[in-house]
Amino acid sequence: MPSAEPAAADATGRTLWAPRAWLGGRWHAAVLLRIDARGHWAEIVPGITAPPADAIGLDGPVLPGLVDAHSHAFQRAFAGLSERISAKVDGSADDFWSWRDRMYRVALRITPDQLRAIAAQLYIELLRGGYTQVCEFHYLQHAENGTPYDDPATLAESLADAAGDAGIGLTVLPVLYERAGFADPTLRPDQRRFASTPDFVLRQRDAVRASGRPLVNAGVAIHSLRAASAASIAALIDRLGDDSGPIHIHVAEQTAEVDACLAATGARPIEWLCRKARPDARWQLVHATHATPAEIDAVAASGAGIVICPSTEANLGDGLPDLRRWLNAGVPIAIGSDSQVARCWTEELRWLEYGQRLVRRERNVAAGRSMQASSKVTDSARASANTASATRLFEAALANSGPSAGFAHSGLVPGARADALVLEAEAPGLLGVPPSHTLDALVFATDAPAFRAVYVAGRRVVDGNVHVGAEPIAARFAAAMAALWNDADLD
Question: pTM for this structure?
Answer without folding.
Answer: 0.95
